[in-house]
Write a structure and sequence with these properties.
The chain has 246 residues and is of the alpha/beta class. 42% of the residues lie in helices and 15% in strands. The chain is built from 9 helices and 6 strands. A 6-stranded parallel β-sheet has the order 3-4-2-1-5-6, with helices on both faces.
Length: 246
C-alpha cells in the first residue's frame, strides 16, 4: 500500500568511505573528506523534502580501535566540517549523541559551540552519533536507572520500556522511521538498536561519497511502498486508516 508520506526521522550508517578511497588509490582520509561533502548535500536535500530529524553514524566507540593516524584525521575532520553555513543556510539545528568526554577537548568545545549557535533553527535537527554505540548507550541507561533505584527514586517494579527510553541519550528524539546503510554491508553495527525496533531498513551498494539525492529518493520511495504494521495485521492497519500505536 503505497503512500506519499515522507519519513520524519531518517538515520544513516554512512559506510564505504575507506573502500571508495582505496579503489581510487587514495588514503582512507580522502574518502572521509569526500564523505563530508555528501553530508552537506544530503542535509540540504532532507530539509528540502521536509525531513525533521537526520541522525548520522559518524564515529563508533569501536572506531577508537582504528589506527591512531586515521582517528586523528577523523577528529580533525569533525572540527573542520562543523561549519555554520551547512546549518544556518538550511535552518538546521545541530545535536550530538555519544560518549563525548572521550573526544579531544577542542572537538568537545567546537561541538558545544555549534549546538549553542544553531539552537534556534527549526527546519530540521541533525544529530551526529559520535563516539557512540548502542550497547554503550544501553549500558549507561542501565547505570542511571540502577542509581535511581539505589537512591530510592524508583521502584524496580515500576521500570518499563519508557523508563529505558527516558534514560537513553536519544530520549529527546523520535525513533527513526527509516534506517539507511550505504556501502553494501547488511548489518546494523551497534547503531540505535533500541530505537530501530520498528524502523524500516534500506541497504544499498553505493559508497557514501557517491550517495546522491537520487539515491536518497530511492530509499524514500522504497519506504513509501511499505506498510508499517507495528505488530498489527495488514488488514487492521487498513481498517484503522492511520498509523497504529506500538
Amino acid at each position: 500500500m503505497a503512500t506519499n508520506i515522507t519519513p520524519q526521522h531518517i538515520a544513516i550508517i554512512m559506510d564505504g568511505n575507506g573502500r571508495w578511497a582505496a579503489e581510487k588509490g587514495k588514503p582512507r582520509s580522502y574518502g572521509h573528506q569526500a564523505g563530508v561533502e555528501t553530508v552537506r548535500r544530503i542535509t540540504s536535500e532532507c530539509t528540502r523534502l521536509g525531513v525533521k530529524w537526520l541522525t548520522l553514524y559518524t564515529f563508533s566507540t569501536e572506531n577508537w580501535n582504528r589506527p591512531a593516524d586515521e582517528v586523528a584525521a577523523l577528529m580533525g575532520l569533525v572540527l573542520s566540517s562543523l561549519e555554520d553555513e551547512i546549518f544556518m543556510k538550511n535552518n538546521v539545528r545541530f545535536q550530538v549523541i555519544g560518549d563525548i568526554k572521550r573526544l579531544p577537548e577542542a572537538v568537545q568545545e567546537k561541538l558545544q559551540q555549534t549546538i549553542d549557535h544553531t539552537a534556534g533553527n527549526t527546519a530540521m535537527t541533525m544529530v551526529v552519533a559520535l563516539s557512540y554505540s548502542s550497547r554503550w548507550e544501553i549500558t549507561e541507561a542501565a547505570r542511571r536507572i540502577a542509581q535511581q533505584v539505589k537512591d530510592g527514586q524508583l521502584n524496580p517494579a515500576d521500570i518499563t520500556e519508557q523508563t529505558l527510553t527516558d534514560n537513553m541519550t536519544t530520549s529527546a528524539m523520535p525513533d527513526p522511521d527509516l534506517l539507511i546503510r550505504t556501502g553494501g554491508e547488511l548489518r546494523i553495527s551497534n547503531y540505535l538498536l533500541w530505537q530501530i525496533a520498528y524502523s524500516e531498513l534500506y541497504f544499498c551498494d553505493t559508497y557514501w561519497p557517491d550517495f546522491s539525492e537520487a539515491d536518497l529518493q530511492r530509499a524514500i520511495d522504497s519506504y513509501q511502498q511499505r506498510q508499517r504494521r507495528f505488530g498489527k495485521t495488514g488488514q487492521q492497519v487498513e481498517d484503522d486508516g492511520q498509523k497504529p500505536s506500538l
